Amino acid sequence: MRHWRAALVISVLVAFAGLAVTTSQGQSLTGEYKIGVLEPLTGPIAFEGKRHLEGYEMMRDLINERGGVMGKRLVFAVGDASDPTAAASEVTRLITREGVKILTGTYSSTLCGAASEAAARHNAIYWETSCVDPRFTRRGLKNVFRTEIDGTGFGWYNIEFIAKHLAPRFNLKPNQLKIAFLSEDSSYGQGVTEAARQRAKQEFGMQEVAAEYYAFATTNDFTPIILKLKQLNPDVVHQIARGNDAVIFWRQSREQNVLFKALVHAGATGYGSPDFGKALGTDGNGPFALLEPGPGFRVEVLRPEGQKIETAFRGIVQRKTGSYPLGGHQLAAGGLWLLKLVLDQAKTDDLEKFRAAVMALDLPVGSSVNGWGAKFADNGQNANERVQHYMLQWQGGQLVTVWPEEFTTNRAKWIPLGPWDQRK
Amino acid sequence: MCIIRASVTAVPQLLVSTVLLGGIYALIAVGLTLIFGIMRVVNFAHGEFLMLGMYLAFWAFTLLALDPYVLLFVSIPLFFGAGLLTYTLVMKGVIHASHNVQIFTTVGLSIALQNVALVLWTGDFRFVRPWYYSVVVRLGGTAFNLSQIAAFVVSVGFTVALFAFMKWSYTGRVMRATAQDRDAASLMGIDTDRVYGLTWAIGIVCVGVAGVLLAPLYPVYPTAGLQFVLLAYVVVVLGGLGDMVGALLGSLIVAAVEVVGSYVFGTAWKEVLYFLLFIAILLIRPAGLFGQRGTETLGV
Count of A–B CB contacts within 8 Å? Predict the structure, then answer.
């Protein structure tokens, strides 16, 4: 009998110990909290949508290891936003059938507008982590929030890099630089490009020699544009590419032996996508892409809380994919982590209280995943200067962090870009 | 709009780019015009068979180290079989139905094939990089990629072969007879169902081969066909329904408008320009530039 009692006591102790282990932060998770995750999972941009979904899932697991959200286990109801119409109808489905009150997504600037409008009609919270269309937070919608910088921020960063990092190394003043703007014609490409054009001209007096937009899905030959660039001889090509347009433009530039001094891009698509390296290998050495941090990033320069979550996230990505986090992973994870912080603070998904918690969030740069901070404006946009971004460069077939230099152990190479066969 | 004064030095390269890009469009359009012309079916799944050709090249190259140009010979019977299979399973049942039903069927087939590819191979971009993928030939101030030349040569070869087949072979004559009057052909003892099956299969072979040839030039992904197929429709209508040589020349015209229009007016204008040309041709000559007058009333 005594043995039986002892066994029971030990069993109970072991069970409690097990519970404590499963919630590593010492908090038990009571029930589930479901949010809607909306990404393009079919169609022409599914490749990037799936990466974002992976990023959300890995961060969700990390969040659940760290106490979940509002003390509950975070779970997803996933919707496929293959185009703007599907995005809007999936939002309605997730709200009405799955019962979610918060939606996050959608990677693409062509989708986030339609999705957030649909969410607004149901008075649901829309938490955007990736799209950068500047118009997204200019519609007076009180339910809309964005953790990523907007397109004007991308344009701002790119011109900062060109004027302050590249121009001195070309032995030119910013106003002596000849710059050609080239972009795919979506709201993302136009938003970033117009912001960059404005700053380049008004603040630095750069000489714009060309500004061309193209339809990325139907442009199969860039030779006409490249021949024009040959004639105009720009120092810098500022190109916002979306997919295979980056591969075709770079390959054909090499074929035509056009020699600009640098190419600068922004975002996780085009030159910012790992596909560019897969397609071209070391032939793709040289272009810059403004992104989240990549190899070479010095995590020790972040604040202690930022170091912890950044290291943990990198670890989980490394375990699950065997590689450094990709841009899509980082955007989704960075945004979802901020959502957790807000929900834990608000303790509710009531829009007014949630909004108050968002506005109260004040994290300096270096506090979170990707070295981000947070300070949201009344329109729901995270402050561009808090969403620290980094310039990466294709070196040896991979993207490495090269700027700002205090954040990285790597240095930019091939400034200016030399002959095509000498960029190895 | 950015209008630039054409540099004389750019003219040879613009010509070369036109010819090579036209070759790629022709390769895709030849199969489409055959199906369009003989069967009177608008095949909206044409781009997806192009995508399957690209995936075939990718997997053969990745798993078996098989060069796309070697694969070309294997792909012909493979796509012929795939064409017969899809005809029997999908198209045969709707070949005598209204055009609306045929359109919905091929759109359905297109979406099904895209999503099968997405499920099987994910949405990731894949690349075929044989040793010659970045070989550039420089000649007389122009530069061009070796793979593009190969695509152009094969497209001219296919066009000539199909033209000869349709013009001088017995089967070709039977196919043309079926195109002209399905009922009369049946009364003459022609097995029209067999003709349609054969036509569909040959059309699929053309576009499948095009996919194999394009794989070293463009990324492979489930919707890769979409970026080319819209242009192929323009080419087919422009060149004349069912006309092989018309498809080749129509491809060159569309490529010229695209290349020269992009250079002179700006890339954003290229689609405006060739669709304006498209509308103009339809208004002036509805049968297309090289089609026989009146063929447009045959059913499409």
Answer: 111
Q: DSSP secondary structure string, B15-58?
A: HHHHHHHHHHHHHHHHHHHHHHHHH----TTHHHHHHHHHHHHH
Whether A44 sits inside 8 A of B262 (CB atoms) is: no
* CATH classification (class only), A152-296+390-422: alpha beta
Task: Verify whether the Cβ–Cβ distance A224 to B222 is below 8 Å.
Answer: no
User: What are the tens digits of pLDDT across the range A226-237?
Assistant: 999 999 999 999
Residue A72: phi and psi, rounded to 5, are: -115, 160
A224 and B24 in contact by Cβ < 8 A? no
* Separation in Å, CA of B19 to nearest CA in chain A: 12
Which site among B11, B18, B50, B125 would you substitute to test the A interface, given the most A Cβ atoms closer than 10 Å to its Cβ?
B125
Do the chains contact at B143 and A257, CB–CB below 8 Å? yes
Q: Where are the domains of chain A?
A: 32-149+300-386, 152-296+390-422
The answer to whether B149 faces chain A, any CB pair under 8 Å, is no
Q: A284: nearest CA in chain B?
A: B134
State in words which class domain A32-149+300-386 has: alpha beta
pLDDT at B123 over 60: yes
Q: pLDDT tens-digit profile of A65-120?
A: 999 999 999 999 999 998 899 999 999 999 999 999 999 998 888 899 999 999 99
Query: What CATH number does domain B10-122+136-298 carry, 1.10.3470, 2.30.30, 2.40.50, 3.40.50?
Result: 1.10.3470
Is the predicted pLDDT of residue A24 greater than 70, yes or no?
no
In the chain, the amino acid numbered A10 is I
DSSP conformation letters of A347-394: -S--HHHHHHHHHH-EE-TTSSGGG--EEB-TTSBBPGGGS--EEEEE
